[in-house]
Amino acid sequence: MINRLKVKAFSTIVLLLQVSSGFPQEPVDLDYDYFKDEVQPIFLAKRDGNVRCVQCHSRSSNFRIQALEDHQLFFTEEQTLMNFESASQFVLPGGDPLASRFLTHPLASEAGGDPFHGGGKHFASQYDPEWRVMADWVAGAKKRREPSSVQVRIVQTNAASDTSTIIDPVTNSVIGKITDIEIPHGIVGAPDGSQLYITNESMHSLDIVDSRTLRVKRRIPLSGRPNNVAVTGDGSRVYVAIMEMPGTIDVIDVTSMKKIKSIPVEGAIHNVYVTPDSKYAVGGSIQTRTINVIDIASNELVWTLEMSSGIRPMIFNTNPDGSTKNIFVQLSGFHGFAVVDFASRAEIARIEHPPALGQKAHYDGLQGAPAHGLGVSPDGKTLWSTSKVYSTVYIHSLPDLVEVGQVFVGQHPEWVTFTPDGKTAYIGAAGDHVTYAVDVATMKTVARIPVGQVPKRLASVYMAVD
Fold first, then answer.
1. Measured between alpha carbons, how far is 225 from 223 in angstroms, rounded to an integer?
2. pTM of the model
């Protein structure tokens, strides 16, 4: 239990320092929770060319940051209190940010920082989003400031890398990257644009990324190696597929940034999704060939369906009232997709892709999944299904499932997403290390965007801009 009186006492100390400094400023309290959730993650962030703050300051005799133990992913409450106390001694709250050594020491001298910092200069400008987070804390902030705007971005995870690429769908150009997540797998965004959720296969964690700083602000330990990830429509919960037997789906509470439950399911889960109405989380197992449906209200498994082979990507379409109508399912060893009626819990159709026009079949490295990527256009009128055999996306009309187009989308296309307006589809071509942008209306490729090594999962997200 945090000693709030002790926190208050430290606020009093720094206020006395403020008065003695002669700065004409209004007294403010340093907010503990803001420090914990927004400032502390900066101490753990890896910036290009710099060591993490914690590496040097865990050995410091003045501003000391508590060291993380082996396999510890974030500070404990006790460590957080000690970090808060330590940082508060180098802060003059409420006034000119350049009066606080906490802010000037890591800031470039040409931007107003100190001439020298033994840990190097981490922030080139006072407009750096991370520096502004710290400056806002010194100014007395209790929550993050409202973003200047929220914009649509395409985020492509690169499965054989430690980066995820950020694409501007207006220009189809790369405008940034997320680093320090080795083997990133699934990616979804918070509906309000505040943060991104990326599964980290290397550390068995769900990594929460601040959409303005592009840094990992929290790593949440999971029950096993994660694969895909999904978020509810209100942004309150994140569901993580755990690709280990006997089978679980982890549930993350976004407010507390903690795992609140591991739901037992039938088999290791490769992909998990939230239905469009946010009533169910649906996970698919390759090993047990089962679709597992969880009631989000109770976080309990409510029904399963065994298919003929392993469950690969899935996607949904809806009834007029927004409820789930069908699950479209790609299966191990099958070049096409099956259709499952959600209400009757039964397979009602199976569509096999024909040879693609003008494309030569290849079967190297399919990993048991000749078709691996599904998307329903935002208007609900077309279903897009990728083929690794023919390097093609097949487009079918809905609800009649008549093939209406084929588009070449590179070697080993792995995933499909759309801009919210439905004008452009994006597909990661794992074999070419590029992301394809396809105009939905014309069914023509409009851009080939170089990304990282082996791009697989990708998502259309909202991202806040500071």
1. 7
2. 0.93
Dump pLDDT digits (tens) for 325-336: 999 999 999 999
For the chain, the maximum distance between any two Cα atoms, rounded to a whole number of angstroms, is 79
In sequence order, the 6+-apart residues with CB closer than 8 A to the CB of 62 are 90
Reported as a single tens digit per residue, the pLDDT across 150-207 is 999 999 999 999 999 999 999 999 999 999 999 999 999 999 999 999 999 999 999 9
Q: How far apart are CA 215 and CA 47, in angstroms?
A: 9
pLDDT at 148: 87
Q: Where are the alpha helices (DSSP H) in 22-123?
A: 32-34, 40-44, 53-57, 77-88, 101-104
Distance from CA of residue 122 to its chain's centroid?
Answer: 24
The token pair at 280 is 């169910």
- Distance, in Å, from the CA atom of 282 to the CA atom of 276, rounded to the nearest integer, reads 11
Give the model confidence (pLDDT) of 264-312 as tens digits.
Answer: 999 999 999 999 999 999 999 999 999 999 999 999 999 999 999 999 9
Report all structural domains of the chain as residue ranges with CATH numbers, in order of start.
4-138 (no CATH), 152-465 (2.130.10.10)
**Cα–Cα separations (whole angstroms), residue 274 to 194, 250, 281, 443:** 19, 13, 4, 28
Q: How many CA atoms lie within 13 A of 285 on its CB side?
A: 22
Specify whether the CB–CB gap between 180 and 50 falls below 8 A: no
Helices assigned H by DSSP within 217-284: none
Q: What angle do CA 317, 320, 326 make, to 5 degrees?
A: 25
Cβ neighbour number for residue 357 with a 10 Å cutoff = 9
412, 365 in Cβ contact below 8 A? yes
How far, in Å, are 319, 332, 335, 426, 461 from residue 369 at the CA level? 29, 5, 8, 20, 26
Give the residue, 15 or 71, on which the prediction is more confident.
71
